[in-house]
């Protein structure tokens, strides 16, 4: 799989609302902190959970994010090869946090962080 051809966008270029965002990080990373509107499907679970991806709006790109951009590039390439319009988020959730985008934690009372 050639990852050099994967469409990529920086966090700064992402829409501020109405974003179709797929987070492919592992559960512990998700629990610590994630984008409020994201759908969480760990990379290894993606092929078995495509129905959830199909339920996302299909009138806009599907942005795929992980911690720094490696796993999400693989996921975006795989999704594109299977009919989706997927875009890798460069810099991942680390860049999301740096850009000041909203983060939520799954555990009440905990301050969200990107692991």
From TrEMBL:
Protein name, as recorded: Rhodanese-related sulfurtransferase
- One MF annotation (Gene Ontology) recorded for this entry: transferase activity
Give the Gene3D superfamilies listed for this entry: Rhodanese-like domain
Protein's UniProt keywords contain Transferase: yes
The family database entries (InterPro entries) matched by this protein are listed as:
GlpE_sulfurtransferase (IPR050229), Rhodanese-like_dom (IPR001763), Rhodanese-like_dom_sf (IPR036873)
- Annotated organism of origin: Amycolatopsis arida
- SMART domains (alphabetical): RHOD
Cited CDD domains: RHOD (cd00158)
Q: Which residues form the Rhodanese domain?
A: 15-105
One short Pfam name that applies is Rhodanese
Q: Does the keyword Repeat apply?
A: no
Entry-linked SUPFAM superfamilies:
Rhodanese/Cell cycle control phosphatase
UniProt keywords (A-Z) are: Transferase
């Amino acid at each position: 799989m050639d990852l050099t051809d994967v469409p990529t966008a920086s966090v700064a270029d992402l829409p501020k609302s109405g974003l179709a965002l797929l987070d492919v990080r592992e559960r512990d990373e998700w629990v610590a902190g994630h984008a409020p509107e994201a759908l969480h499907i760990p990379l290894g679970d993606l092929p078995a959970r495509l129905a959830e991806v199909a339920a996302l709006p299909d009138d806009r790109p599907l942005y795929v994010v992980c911690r720094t951009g490696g796993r999400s590039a693989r996921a975006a390439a795989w999704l594109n090869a299977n009919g989706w319009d997927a875009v890798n988020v460069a810099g991942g959730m680390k860049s999301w946090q740096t850009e000041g985008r909203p983060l939520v934690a799954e555990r009440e009372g905990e301050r969200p962080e990107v692991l």
